[in-house]
Amino acid sequence: MMNSTPAVVTAELRVHRGKSDVITDLSVSVPRGQVVGLLGPSGSGKSTLMRAIVGAQKIAGGTVTVLGAPAGSPSLRRRIGYVTQAPSVYEDLTIEQNLRYFGRVIGAPAGDVARVVAEVDLAPQLKQLAGSLSGGQLNRVSLAAALLGSPELLVLDEPTVGLDPVLRHDLWQLFASLAQTGVSLLVSSHVMDEARRCDRILLLHEGKLLADETPAGLLQQTNTLDADDAFLTLIARANHRDGAAA
Amino acid sequence: MNPRLTLATTARVLTQIRHDPRTIALLVLVPSLLIGLMAWIFVNSTVFESIGPALLALFPFIIMFLITSITTLRERRSGTLERLMTMPLGKFDFIVGYTLAFGLLAIIQSLIAVGYAVWVCGLTISGNIWLLILVAVVNAILGTTLGLFASAFAATEFQVVQFMPALVFPQVLLGGIFLPRDQMPDVLHSISDWLPLSHSIEALQTVTTEAAATGTVLREVGIVALWALAFVILGSITLRRKTA
Hints:
Distance between the termini of chain A: 45 Å
Helix content of chain A: 25-40%
CATH superfamily of one domain in chain A: P-loop containing nucleotide triphosphate hydrolases
Mean pLDDT of chain A: 90
Oligomer: heterodimer
Shape of chain A: globular
Mean pLDDT of chain B: 90
Number of strands of chain A: 11
Structural class of chain B: mainly alpha
Number of helices of chain B: 10
Strand content of chain A: 15-25%
C-alpha cells in the first residue's frame, strides 16, 4: 500500500535564483522501484530539482513530497542517498575513512563499508587517500557514500560523468539491480545516450518539463531512432511553441 | 545534538589533519617562533616583559581563526557540507565537532607557546603558570569559534582572508597592546570592553604581573569563554540546511 505512492511528487514547484526562475511550475512524479532518468541540457534545472528533493534548496513556491513526507523533513535524512555533482568526499581521508565517517552519521551497520565499496568496484583502493584518486574513482567514492545504510531513494546528480564505457555500463547495471530490490532512483545526466538505460525519463528544458515518458515512448512520440534526435526534436518543438506564444 | 555524531565529526577532522603533517608543524611551531622573534627584537629592553603576555594571546588567536575558517569554508565549497546537511547530522554536531577538534590543537599549540615563552624566552610569571595556560587555551579556542562563525559569511577563500583585517585586526588594535585600554579615548575604551580579545589580553597581563589576582583572571577568562560559547551558538544558527 505504502509503496504504491510515488517516491517523489512535486506540485507547481518554483525556484528562483537571483532574479530569474530556475524552475517554473514544475509538477513531476518519480515512481517507486524504478530508475528514472532526469535529462536535459546543462542549465535546465536538473541539479536544482534534485537539491529541492533532498531538501537542500530554498524554494519559492509549490510543494515537494518525498517518500510521503515534505522534502527536508528530519525523518527523510536516513532514507535518502544523495550524490552532488561535485564529488563531495574528503580528499585528505582514505576511501575507508570517508565511508566510515558517513556511515556513522547515517547510522549504517558496521559491514556496510565493505558492501558499498564492492558495489562501486573500489575494494582494492580502500586504503588510498581520496585525493590521490582519478576523477572517475572519486565520483564512485561519492556514490558509495550515498549507498550506505541502504536508502529507499537515491538522488544521483550526474554519477557517471567522467567514467569510461565499461564502468558506466557497470553502474547502470547496479542502478537496475537496486531498482529491482525496490529502491527508487532519480539519476541525472546530460548524456542523452544514457536515456535508454532508464525505466522512465523526465526531460527538463529551461526549468520546465518537456517529457515524462518511457525511452521507447519517447522515440515513438518524436518519430526518431535515437535519444539525441528525440531530444532535439522535443526542444525544437518547445522553442517553436515559445516563439509562437511570444 | 548527538554526542556520538559530534565525536565522530571530531575524530574525522583530526584524521584529516593527521594526513597533513605540514599543517601540524606550522600550527604547533609558528606561534612559538614569532614569540621568540619578538623576544629577540627586544633583547636589550624590557618591552618583551610587557608585551610578551599579549603575544601569547595574539598569535594563537590569529592562527586558529585562519585555519578554522578556511577549513570549514573548504567543507562548504567541496559539497561535503551539503551532503552532511541532508544526513542525520545536527548543526550543533558539526560546529561542536569542529570546535573540539581544533580546540584540542589549540591546547597543544598554547602549551608549546607558553612553555617556549616562559622557559626559552624567559618571560617572568608572577601568577600561577597553570592559570596562564588556561587563559592561553581558552583564548585559542576563541579564535577557533570565531573562525567557525566567520566562515558562514564567506563565499570564497579570498573573502575569508579579508575577514582577518575586518574582524581580527580591530581587536588587536583596541586590545591594549599598543596603549593600555584605560588611556584610550572613552569611546574606544568602551568599544574595547565589548571585544573578546581585550579580555584575553587583560587576563594574560594580569596573570603575568600580579601574583594574587586569581579572581580577576578567572572573571576575564569567563568572559572570553562566554564569547566562545556565543560564537558556537551563532555558528550553528547561521549554518543552513537549505540554501538558495
